[in-house]
User: Fold these one by one.
Assistant:
Number 1:
Amino acid sequence: MLEINAPNLYLFSYHLKEGLGISLQSSQQNYHSVLEKIVGDISRLIPDAIAQDCQETFLDLQTQPTADLKFKGTLHNHAILGRYLRRSLHQTYALIFDGSVQERYNAHQVQSLLSTLKLLTPDPHSSDNLGQTWLISGVWEHGNSTQIEKLAEESYKTLISPEGWHHQATGDYVGVKLYEFWRTSGGNTGETIEGNSYLLLILYPDREMFQAGWGFYEQWQQVLLSRHQIIWADRQSQRLNQQLINQYQLIEAMADYSELSLYHLKTTRDALSGLLTGFTTLEMHLNLMEIQIDHYDQYCHQLEQDADGLGLTDLTFLKLFSASVQESYLPRLQGDIQAFRLNLERIQTLTQMIQGLVEIRQAQRDRTVKTAVAIVGVGVVTGCIVAVASSTHPAVPSVNPGTNSGVTGVLLLSVICGGVASLVTFLTVVLWQKLGK
């Protein structure tokens, strides 16, 4: 039976810090919420696992760019040693979880441990999340390759998706076997990585190799970050491109723009402006992917150089991702941008035309408001004149001195005259507009 000594679960999670329409203030708020939930979950599941001052340091993004939150305790009968390391890595927040037990576990116990440790990790669907890679490591003492593959299959279901993985790859690094697993949106190579999540399984032959493996985690973080940024940009660009297509088709389906109300004209104009902004964002995603694939290739090459002479190293599976980006991801986005560019002139023309209609309709509405105010003004002035004129006539003796009929009559007369004057003015304005056409 497969046995692993001191099994470890790592989670390398990355969050966008700034750029591509996301402000630093917004990302800090979202990231702070993620950190607060982590502290809350640990405190709830393992009471007194972390000191108050450690919590405050971990949550202080303003003055503590890097923080290491360590904790330990028993959860679901597992004696857990854990830590969270957060840091800034280029334009992202890197969040690394490390949970382990210092015991020998069989395959069944490993799944129980993974389920428990997952409770202490952040939600991968949080805002601004760029992706995550789960890494299971430990010292492999008993078992064979078939049992290792079975362990990986069950671990993927536990950590990422109950449906299991679509693809797997193997490699070697400084004499240690690597296994990687992932899913794609349709199950085919070259498609979007589902959930932007990977599972890596690294089993060391002895504790000496296990300890030595720590020396390369910094380089691996760089590789994983670039890969996740590429996948994130690909997924975001596909989603945005479909939204732009749907919006453009709705605008083109409108029969007669001149029949639209001023409100709908403004809404359509803003939608067209959104199309142009979206096109710019697509180009930014393409630029990000081109930059990151260069970084990814450089980091992979650096990994190979660092491992030179230290044992068998074969990172072909990492290079296959680079090939997939060059053959599928980049051409797909370049094609989307080119298709949009063919309609760019039409969108700009529509924007100018609708802006012209907005200005005409706005001017018409302003004239209507001014005319209405003038008509009401004529009525009010006429009523006032009649009221003043009526009040200057000699008073007529009243049959009933106790009533106020004189004032009431004057008021009624002024209202009637004002209304008639407003009506006459309105009819004159309408007739004048018709004769002028």
Number 2:
Amino acid sequence: MTSPIGEDDLAAWIDGRLSPERQRLVDAYLEGQPDVHARVREQAEQARALASLFAPVADEPIPATMRVAAIRGRQRQPRWQLAIAASLLLALGFGGGWSSARWSGEPRAGIAALANEASDNFRVYAADRIRPAEIGPDQRAMLIRWTSARLGERVTIPDLSTAGYRYGGGRLVATPHGPAALLLYDGPQASKLAVLTRPMQIDKTASMTSTSSGTMGRVTWAVDGIGYSVVGERPAAELQPIADEVRRQADAALVS
């Protein structure tokens, strides 16, 4: 007898842990439950986005000080030495503003964080040949309503045809700072481009900054509490004219 579909099945569907037989049953159930399907699909997208954000940390080797041999060596130290070491660590921590952000070295806020979020999501979705966009280019009004409602700010879809890029659809993505709208574009010779936008709590107004991440260039800025990052597999200098056009259209939409 087949058991009914429950929350455990939905959680496993989100994580991709279902057996092939159970996967078919859950897929059939979701086809008849569009509201549930939309909810779990969004949660799955958020899980993939968060996994991509923390993938570099997960791939790092275990620090030498955290290996079993090192820990056993510390356990053999006299108690007075351990106490002194703990005191020094506390002093450094409180005196120097010790935080997880310092350990990781990654920016946690502002347009620097926004640039990383843009490149992380670009890696996930621009390479997806099956379904890079959740809402296609023929449903622009739907995407604008959906993302604007979730972000609490008006989202616009820039027309980048003069730069040789055709709008290919978009989606809502998760970031450590809340939801963001990801707009995807197809360019010449199968090239890809993305624009990520979300509300900003820090760097609410910031001038354009060009950075890179591997082979990707990024141009990132913020205006009146809204951040934008243009990312693509091109040098940032080549993305600058496109970013200027995105900003021009976004600024015009704000005053219209």
Number 3:
Amino acid sequence: MGPAELVAPLQISPAWYVAVSLVLLIALFNLFAPLIRLAAGATEAAGPRVPIPVRSTYLSRITTVETALGTESPDVRDAARQLAKVVRDFAHDAWGVKAEHLTYRDAAVAGLDDLAACLLGLYEAEFAETEPAGLRAQIADARKLVARWS
């Protein structure tokens, strides 16, 4: 086999250069896309959004508990239990947390600090040795919790 019988290597088509360039551009764009969005002024959401029907439903349930406290012989402990159930149901509907038997410590460990603080205040009213005076602060905390997360 002599040099006359050898075949020269095939040349690369210009289409391959274009394809490789496009792939590299796409990879670089994906790499720097978060920086580009940040430079453009896009910010991440402050937290999960709660649908308005969920918010209004739970605000009305809190108002129902508050009006039940305004009767002649209010049962503050029972109202605290009802308010704790409302707050736990809100956590379930708003964030999908299984909160039926959630304690304040469980909520704090899970990173739901606002829910934990609200439940702690309700525990103090629900399990106090003497009859609690009222639930105004706990009702305000529950309303703040629902309003803050919506």
